[in-house]
Amino acid sequence: MQLLADKHGDLRPSLIKLESPSLGTIDDTMMETSSDEYTVTPPESFISDSWTELNGADVDASVHGNLPRLEDLVDRCTNILERHILNVMEWREEKIGHLLNFSPNTPSAPHTVRHTGVQTRSVGTGHNGSNATFKGSSSHDSFVRLPPKAREELLHYTSVIASMYKTVLYHNFEHASHVVASTDMLLVMLNTKNRKSSQNHPNRRCSTNTSVSDLTSDFSTLSGSSADGADLSYGLTACPLTHLALVIAALVHDVEHQGVGNKQLVDENDPLAIKYKGKSVAENNSLSVALEMLEDPKYSNLYQSLFGPSDNLNKDARAELEHDERLFRRIFYDIILATDINSQERLQRNKEKWKMAFECDEDLEIDRSSCTCEKPNEAMSTNGHGTKQMQLSPNTNTDDEGNSSHSSGSSDSQLCLACSLAQDECFSRINYLRTSAILEQLIQTADVAHLMQSWNIFMKWNVKLYNELWAAKLAGRGPDVSANWFKGQIGFFDFYIIPLAKRLEHCGIFKSLGSLFVENCNENRRRWILEGEQRCRDMHAAIVQRLGDGN
């Protein structure tokens, strides 16, 4: 990989040649699964500081003109992805390992490497930019290590995705890497506050005797409370598959973003707007790019690490793996589309889902008894790895009501909310509805995390977004936002960011840490009211000096 820079010093990724990564010893901070207890629990103050000052060292360095190197950003993302893949691999082995028809020495078996000894877990990036770890003792004698070929493919996949982010001033790969880090930190906070209760849950692991139609994933535990009423994570701490879907979605959610909004693409009759019928254009393109790449046979070892082996499986194991992959794709699909916050229809649908999940009767079930909708067929196809998959994307047409029509020719009729949620058997229960609503809030929070973090981080990304919109205006691809930027940011806090933060606090998944998001929002809003007008003048003068005023 080669790092290029334009005349203004912005990152411009160019994948010239990908050298094979070192296949030596992998740091043990990547190896512990999410089910293990810490010997030392990170203090709440450390977690709060880590979220609030996430990647703060990059902000400090940028003051002196030192931008983060693309290679470093790729490494950060790869390490986070690797840790979550490992969690899924061990989770899968514990869940269905006895169903797999191979011995460890079978050539087609997953070539996992075992390691024993003291383990550590990274808990995110502290205020000084360094990764902090806490030693822990595993409940297992050994744990899964990512096979060397799979790790090489993971690094290559992350590098290629990075190279496909365009040279724009905000929606570039540095933004993607910050969203990945923020997503990971949210999961650290979630696991820290719910670890003990989720481990004590009597159904933490799904029963190996449960059929796919009876909800074979860990979502069978998503009832919202444990036997002692202590677990408020809605099963999220027990299912690393959802964590993995979140972090991969964070990585790819803005790939090939052109630095303009979906409305501009529609107004320009951009080929992507035509392809996706003007609905969530950039988000649907990100889905298509990410999944088409992942299904390329050259990533077969990585694919197997994500979803399990495709050969030497008995019927029960194959059904279990197909179900997990289908669930992953459904989550991945929904949470990427949830980042289209400029779609009023989609925002309204997300609000309705939240209201149904958290503001209605606790005993509510999704009622389809009076509905005349026909459940869409779950179109299945064979991917490049020889396994069946649900065609959610890229071969799915999506409208802003969240409905899908599969390429196999299934009904393209409008679906009610209950039916659209019931396309997978996991969506037919209110407990999953709550989890699905939370997952959307998490990815939306990570996407705008800078507004809920420290003032310096907020201002860094605020300036970058303003610069990108000004560059679009100069190119004739967007309006002049300079006159309304100050008041617009206050409105964004009041009508989107603070309500989002309050929903995270209200649902209770972060327990005492839940108030952190609201507190940080309010503090940034307070300072913006005091300093924002002068900041606007300064940032406008700087970008005009850099790019001109168009006259």
Give a written overview of the molecule.
This protein is mainly alpha-helical. The protein folds into 2 domains: 2-447, no CATH class; 449-547, no CATH class. It has 17 helices and 10 strands. The chain has helices spanning 44-52, 56-63, 70-96, 148-164, 173-199, 240-252, 262-267, 271-275, 281-294, 300-307, 315-337, 344-358, 417-421, 430-447, 455-474, 485-507, 515-547; strands at residues 2-5, 11-14, 113-115, 119-125, 131-136, 143-145, 380-382, 388-390, 396-398, 404-406. The chain has a two-stranded antiparallel ribbon with strand order 1-2. Strands 3-6 form a two-stranded antiparallel ribbon. Strands 4-5 form a two-stranded antiparallel sheet. A hairpin with a 5-residue loop joins strand 9 and strand 10. The longest helix is centred in the C-terminal third of the chain and has 33 residues, at 515-547. The radius of gyration is 23 Å and the shape is globular. It starts with a strand and ends with a helix. The model is unreliable at 1-39, 102-143, 197-230, 362-371, 374-382, 386-415 and 422-430 (pLDDT under 50).
List the helices and strands and how they pair.
Layout: E1 2-5, E2 11-14, H1 44-52, H2 56-63, H3 70-96, E3 113-115, E4 119-125, E5 131-136, E6 143-145, H4 148-164, H5 173-199, H6 240-252, H7 262-267, H8 271-275, H9 281-294, H10 300-307, H11 315-337, H12 344-358, E7 380-382, E8 388-390, E9 396-398, E10 404-406, H13 417-421, H14 430-447, H15 455-474, H16 485-507, H17 515-547
Antiparallel strand pairs: 1-2, 3-6, 4-5, 7-8, 9-10
Helix pairs in contact: 3-4, 3-5, 3-6, 4-10, 5-6, 5-14, 6-11, 6-14, 9-11, 11-14, 12-14, 14-16, 15-17, 16-17
